[in-house]
Amino acid sequence: xxxxxxxxxxxVVLGAIDTWFTAEIVKVPVxxxxxxxxxxxxxxxxxxxxVRSVASNxxxxxxxxxxxxxxxxxxxxxxxxxxxxxxGSGVMVQASKIQLMSKLPGIVWGFASLVGTTAATGQxxxxxxxxxxxxxxxxxxxxxxxCFGFVHEIMANALTSSEKK
Length: 165
Hints:
By secondary structure, this protein is mainly alpha-helical. The protein contains 6 helices and no strands. Helices cover 76% and strands 0% of the residues.
């Protein structure tokens, strides 16, 4: 089978499994798993891409968590929030100086996924419950998504014909 068809079969099968899995088994936002899945491929795929993607995504989540925590403690106005988001954005850029996380988008996807998870779950960054804390939920979703990417790559490679067509 050609590579494009193999990738298509993989996303059809694994996308359905991911959607079911995140709705029924590990209840995390499926869109976060898909962001991480894409991040895995964009950051090089394979074992190295998995490590780079997970490290970058989690770094973004941590930076976003600290940014939202600072916002929760700051005066309640958009100006303060905007300044803190700007600072968090600068920290993301500085974090991308680390070779493992040198592809800035991987960090940004983690940051954005945490902010979106906070909004989607309705849980504040100050939530004391670890199982529903948006940071934990986003990290679990990102790791799951990267794992789906890894399996997708293996599946697509197995389905791809070695003959040129």
